[in-house]
Design a protein that fits this description.
It contains ten helices and 20 strands. The protein is of the alpha+beta class. Strands 5, 6, 7, 13, 14, 15, 16, 17 and 18 form a nine-stranded mixed sheet that branches.
Length: 402
């Protein structure tokens, strides 16, 4: 095909923070590259990006050498710098990770070691020292991570869209992909538009595995959506900053924690329960086709059998405010039931392998004229700038090889 037969060089599907960071990185690395972003919603950052707790993670939790560890540590510093450069609201607050049971102490000490291996400064605290940071928090021991912060990720996404110079098309859901390795990629949108590109980048988040299959690539994983439910504290003065429990290393979820946002409010959560739709932000949102797709994936059943006790506890906290309150009170005993006010939920796009194991790192795969981001849940917002550069690097490599 002639160059003028293409509408753009690179077509990015997904207007969340990872897709927009990719567009930004492409135009920075290769000025003149024509980039179009398709987003099915009427604006950016409507799902994972805009429905999380807004935390700029330090990278302390992630396996040394993994993409999550490297990109979160690098990305946290870059995100704070980006926010400062563009006047986006942010704050470096630091956070406490608190052990409330003796069984958690070895895991807390392991986190200290992991943080140091990842190049993150941490301070170990005895139980009596916790009150110096958080007077209402109780625990046997804690660590303070000074590089953690909060920011407005939706504002970051909007700025990335503006600064990228890409053409952003909202309300453009992809319904068909025609990829011909010798010619290019053509995408049909729900609005009836056809967009032709030399290469496609899949940053479709909750639908990334479906888009990969539409393109003709088998992702080898399926997205199993987990809803994270939040409450807001009616007495935000109980918490000064960010307070986390010691996470269970068998799961990618961090447990119910407390986050003081930029507006001074405090969110408690999230838990992690299976959603009945990929955008299932409440129990009343059920999409039979999507639910059947999850149920037909062998990995979903293997995951349920292996971790049913953990899942039962999460479900109980979902339906019982008292159980959720107990999880919060482990960290802040002074919280009362009337302090918890329901807040909007989010959904985590978690990739699960056929054998039921959770993909615990970012997962980026390449196909003919395509790059697929197949697992980018938390801390992807924190790590979005390095992720975008890596996806852009692979995409430009593909273009150069054509």
């Amino acid at each position: 095909m002639r160059a003028d037969a293409y509408d753009c060089d690179v077509l990015v599907v997904g207007g969340g923070i990872v897709g927009l960071s990719t567009a930004y990185a492409l135009t920075r690395a290769a000025p003149g590259t024509r980039v179009t972003v398709l987003e099915k919603e009427p604006g950016p950052a409507r799902h994972q990006t805009g429905r999380n707790s807004g935390v700029v993670h330090s990278g302390i939790y992630y396996r040394p050498g993994s993409l999550k560890a490297r990109y979160a540590v690098r990305g946290a510093a870059e995100m704070i710098k980006f926010c400062a450069e563009y006047g986006i609201d942010h704050s470096v607050t630091g956070k406490l990770i608190v052990a409330t049971d003796r069984a958690e102490l070895p895991r807390l000490h392991a986190l200290v070691q992991r943080g140091r291996e990842n190049g993150i400064p941490v301070r170990e605290l005895g139980g009596a020292q916790i009150a110096g940071y958080e007077p209402e928090v109780r625990g046997l021991a804690a660590i303070h991570v000074g590089t953690t912060g909060v920011c407005d990720f939706t504002a970051v996404a909007r700025q990335l869209a503006r600064a990228s110079g890409a053409e952003i098309r909202y309300g453009a859901r992809v319904v068909r992909v025609d990829r011909r390795p010798e010619r290019g990629v053509a995408v049909l949108t729900s609005a009836g538009q056809v967009v032709r590109a030399r290469a496609l980048v899949n940053c479709a988040g909750l639908y990334c595995d479906e888009l990969a299959r539409l393109t003709g690539d088998e992702p080898g994983v399926r997205i199993v959506p987990f809803r994270g439910e939040y409450y807001e504290l009616a007495r935000p003065e109980l918490v000064r900053g960010l307070v986390y429990p010691v996470p269970d290393p068998a799961f990618p979820f961090l447990g119910v924690h407390l986050t003081k946002g930029l507006d001074g409010g405090v969110h408690a959560g999230p838990n992690a329960v299976p959603a009945l739709a990929r955008e299932g932000y409440g129990w009343g949102v059920v999409r039979p086709r999507e639910l059947a797709g999850t149920a037909s994936w062998p990995g979903a059943w293997s995951l349920a059998r292996r971790h049913w006790r953990y899942g039962a506890g999460e479900l109980y906290r979902s339906v019982s405010k008292g159980a959720f309150l107990d999880a919060v009170r482990r960290l802040v005993p002074g919280v009362e039931e009337r302090d918890l006010v329901r807040a909007p939920a989010g959904v985590r796009a978690q990739a699960v392998r056929r054998d039921g194991t959770l993909v615990d790192d970012f997962l980026i795969r390449e196909g003919a004229r395509a790059v697929h981001v197949l697992n980018a849940p938390s801390p992807a917002a924190t790590a979005s700038l390095p992720i975008g550069r890596e996806v852009a690097r692979r995409t430009l490599k593909t273009l150069r090889a054509l």
